[in-house]
Amino acid sequence: MNNNTNLLIMEPRISIKKKHILTLERIGQLEIENALLNRLLQKQIDINQAKTTFLANVSHELRSPLTNIQLSASLIEHYYQRMNEEKIIGHLGKIKDAVSDFVVILNNYLLTEQSQKADEDQFTG
């Protein structure tokens, strides 16, 4: 509680007019604080929505390289005896490329998360 609120509670001799003025001041302060809290809440809602959308996109992007890795590994596993060395090396190259793509996507995600965290800390701190 602030000093004005303490005055209202602790001092019975304060005039009604003074109490009214102090009450109106406190109401004004509370309205300002409420507006700030509402803005902070809306910002958090927006951040959470952006994160949800971002995670959905990242999840989709990560599936492609993983699918390519799985497909090439399965082809090598099942058909390696019938494949020549060139085809095996080609599939291994696809696996390496997919892993590289995966790492790039993951690094981008981590950088974005760090940036969003810094923005949130700046906003709330």
Automatic annotation (TrEMBL):
SMART domains: HisKA. CDD domains: HisKA. Residues 50-118 form the Signal transduction histidine kinase dimerisation/phosphoacceptor domain. Pfam families: HisKA. Signal peptide: none annotated. It catalyses: ATP + protein L-histidine = ADP + protein N-phospho-L-histidine. Its EC number is 2.7.13.3. It is an enzyme of class 2 (transferase). Gene3D superfamilies: 1.10.287.130. GO terms for molecular function: phosphorelay sensor kinase activity. This is histidine kinase.
